[in-house]
Amino acid sequence: MGSLSSKNALVTGSTSGIGLAIARAFAAEGANVTINGLGDDAAIEQERSGIEKDFGVKCRYSDANMMDGAAVSAMVHDAEAAFGSLDILVNNAGIQHVAPIEEFPDDKWEAIIRINLMAAFYAIKAAVPGMKARKWGRIINTASAHALVASPFKSAYVSAKHGIAGLTKTVALEVAQDGITVNAIAPGYVWTPLVEKQIPDTMKARGMTEEQVKHDVLLAAQPTKEFVTVEELAALTLFLCSDAARQITGTTLPMDGGWTAQ
Questions:
Q1: What is the SS3 assignment for the chain?
Q2: Any idea what the Cα angle at residue 159 is, between residues 155 and 161, rounded to 5°?
Q3: Where are the transmembrane segments (predicted)?
Q4: How many domains does the chain have?
């Protein structure tokens, strides 16, 4: 077993994409994992059982609604009860909507703030007491380059991600002497199935080739002109859980191909 063989982790928004890659990386290092998210029941069960089969750990699934603070808190407590502890919390669940501020739907604003920011608050609040009692914990929040810089038409998402950066700093200071680190990872554009599915429509709408869409649209802000991979993000998350990273806390770490250097 690996470096996390005595640990238990919870990753929200982990039935696909970034969250699933992080959950599998934890399992590969020996951690038991609770996954959470939306999707087809059969597909989720395939991922859950696949983690157990591939890595020889225990894997639970929670269908907790990230819009509901009480459900988020209950998910954390259930994960802790099922495995005996919750040592690692990754707040990864998120949604997006793009519109000018004067046209931004009220319900979309509220949903983005609830899922991208408030859910992290409720999860952290529920997880910290157990981590303090055990004098060890790792809390990692998936932020975004938009936690550090803004883009037009993303008022709710940018507000939520800036909020995640502030929440990360505040909690890190509160638990700094309790063996708990709190950090945020700020990816640029990440190559996921969700991004891949957007390409054909953009090609058609703009009369571009696939390569032009990737280079000139999706990666316009990323100087390397390369997507971040979910494996790279998972590797950074693993590092933040290691003893080597115990003095890294209260930070928002960009992994954005140089986007926020500009």
A1: CCCCCCCEEEECCCCCHHHHHHHHHHHHCCCEEEEECCCCHHHHHHHHHHHHHHHCCCEEEECCCCCCHHHHHHHHHHHHHHHCCCCEEEECCCCCCCCCHHHCCHHHHHHHHHHHHHHHHHHHHHHHHHHHHHCCEEEEEECCHHHCCCCCCCHHHHHHHHHHHHHHHHHHHHCCCCCEEEEEEEECCEECHHHHHHHHHHHHHHCCCHHHHHHHHHCCCCCCCCCEEHHHHHHHHHHHCCHHHCCCCCCEEEECCCHHHC
A2: 120
A3: none
A4: 1
Q: Please check whether residue 165 is in contact with residue 184, taking contact to mean a CB–CB distance below 8 angstroms.
A: yes
Q: What's the pTM?
A: 0.96
Quick check: is 198 in a domain?
Answer: no
For the record, the structure tokens of 151 come out as 């883009």
Residues identified as active-site? 157
pLDDT tens per residue, range 72-125? 999 999 999 999 999 999 999 999 999 999 999 999 999 999 999 999 999 999
**What pLDDT sits at residue 128?**
98
- CATH number (domain holding residue 39): 3.40.50.720
Determine, yes or no, domain membership for 67: yes
Residue 243 lies in a domain: yes
Could you tell me the residue range of the domain that residue 147 belongs to?
8-190+229-261
Residue 209 maps to a domain: no
CA distances from 55 to 29, 31, 76, 88, 199 (A): 8, 9, 23, 18, 33
